[in-house]
Design brief:
By secondary structure, the chain is mostly beta strands. The chain has helices at 20-26, 29-33, 117-123, 167-174, 207-210; strands spanning 46-47, 57-60, 65-67, 85-86, 102-107, 113-116, 127-130, 133-134, 157-158, 161-166, 182-187, 216-221, 224-225, 235-237, 250-256, 271-273, 288-290, 297-302, 307-309, 315-323, 329-335, 343-344, 346-347, 357-364, 369-379, 403-409. The protein folds into two domains: 2-76 and 294-409, Immunoglobulin-like, CATH 2.60.40.650; 85-290, Oxidoreductase, molybdopterin-binding domain (Sulfite Oxidase, Chain A, domain 2). It has five helices and 26 strands. It is globular and about 70 Å long. The chain starts with 19 loop residues before the first helix and ends with a strand. The structure holds the ligand Nc1nc2c(c(=O)[nH]1)N[C@H]1C(S)=C(S)[C@@H](COP(=O)(O)O)O[C@H]1N2 and molybdenum atom (MO).
Length: 411
């Protein structure tokens, strides 16, 4: 029998992606190594230095990509400074009156629309919702072997409050033709090479998602004008689906009579295998399906990974968030014994559809020593997080293994 690989790579195990630098800062790495816990090579993350932004972990400079450390995602509503940043090209120059910013809706509509932000705000009712924004590649670093792209842990996600108008309301005015099946989105950002005549990314969605009342043309983030880095003055918010659909610096929505084919729609981009492929193999782009709803995920946001608890601590009150794309969360379970036993966390309902859900739990730590706290969410469809990143694919979408944090109870 021909072999297709070895298990050696699996040493880059479940903990891969957890920040060893964070751990080191909180309790000495020796104490972890003494436990014989396999972990990724120490990597000191570069921290974002930008006005109006927290010190997020920089995954790339060109384009700028920065994720939010789990412990910075503890707020119920993600503050603007803590929202991750994901650019595919450059940040466009936006000058002048933001209300004069124009975009258009054309293609398979009875009446193409070109509208300024000012007109949009007066013509359509505004809605304010807490909506998940999550990069399609969130969790990528958990894949073995490494998949191409930004090595997100779980920090390519946040749940801020967005204000905007429903895309459905505007599409109703434009008159969506029966031939309309898909959208294609365009922003004003130049490509990395500086070209302004082609999009850095242009993705689209099924028309039904465009008509969902939670899909917004947004102009406020947490009650203030959307900052330039987050797509101001106006962007799309397509909650629950890959963040790449939530076009920043919105210029055009092209209503199409077929699946959109802009950059980011073909090959292995935002597509996952229809049948599982050998990890590390080339794969066949004809056997891939577009990633739509994001998978179920949980993150412990308190305590931080690597927290040292005082001697005698025998209980840990922990909390986090869980979410599941188009679905809600049914349960979150916690284990402190490597998955042998699980305890149900308390899970709150979402603030509104497409908001993440808070979970809290109190767990026993029977003695001093090293613990891993594992969190596993299950959505309303009964889909749960796997123990390790599943369904490997070349560009690394859909990795949502159970979340693990490490705590040390001092002797
Ligand atoms: N015009 C434009 N819109 C864009 C992008 C981009 O590069 N250009 N990146 C997308 C991706 S991949 C994600 S995950 C989200 C990130 O939004 P944020 O930077 O506000 O967090 O924006 C999306 N919208
Ligand atoms: Mo993304």
């Amino acid at each position: 029998m021909k072999s297709f690989g070895t298990w050696a790579a699996s040493r880059r195990n479940l903990l891969q992606g957890a920040s060893m630098a964070t751990l080191g800062a909180i309790f000495p790495i020796e104490s972890v190594l003494a436990q014989g816990t396999p972990a990724a090579a120490p990597k000191s993350p570069k921290l974002l230095e930008m006005d109006g932004k927290a010190k997020l972990s920089v995954l790339g400079d060109k384009p700028l990509v920065a994720e939010t450390q789990a412990e910075l995602l503890d707020d119920d509503v993600t503050p603007t400074d803590k929202l991750f940043v994901r650019n595919n090209g450059q940040v466009p120059d936006v000058t002048g009156d933001p209300k004069a910013w124009k975009f258009k809706i054309d293609g398979e509509v009875d009446k193409p629309i070109e509208i300024s932000l000012g007109e949009l705000m007066t013509k359509y009712p505004a809605v304010t919702l807490k909506l998940m924004l999550e990069c399609g590649g969130n969790g990528r670093s958990f894949f073995t072997p490494e998949a191409r792209g930004n090595q997100w842990t779980n920090g390519g996600a946040g749940c801020p409050e967005w204000t905007g108008v429903r895309l459905a309301d505007v599409l109703k005015d434009a008159g969506v033709k029966p031939s309309a099946t898909y959208t294609g989105h365009y922003g004003a950002d130049p490509t990395l090479a500086g070209e302004t005549d082609k999009p850095s990314i242009s993705r689209g969605m099924k028309i039904a998602k465009a008509l969902d009342p939670h899909t917004l043309i947004a102009f406020k983030l947490n009650g203030k004008d959307i900052p330039l880095i987050h797509g101001g003055p106006v962007r799309l918010i397509v909650p629950g689906w890959a963040g790449s659909l939530s076009t920043k610096w919105l210029k055009r929505i092209w209503i199409r009579d077929k699946e959109h084919d802009g950059p980011g729609m073909g090959g292995f981009s935002y597509r996952t295998p229809k049948k599982p492929i050998v990890p590390g193999s080339k794969g066949d782009d004809k056997d891939m399906a577009i990633l739509e709803s994001m998978p179920v995920r949980s993150i412990v946001t308190f305590p931080a990974d690597g927290t040292r608890l005082a001697a005698g601590a025998r209980k840990l009150e922990l909390r986090g968030h869980a979410w599941a794309g188009d679905n809600d969360i049914k349960t979150v379970e916690i284990s402190t014994d490597y998955g042998v036993t699980w305890k149900a966390a308390d899970v709150k309902p979402p603030a509104n559809k497409f908001a993440w859900q808070r979970f809290t739990a109190s767990v026993d730590l029977p003695s001093a020593g090293y613990y891993e706290v594992w969190a596993k969410a299950t959505d309303t469809k009964g889909v749960t997080q796997p123990f390790t990143a599943a369904n490997w694919n070349p560009q690394g979408y859909g990795a949502n293994p159970i979340n693990r944090i490490r705590v040390l109870v001092e002797a």
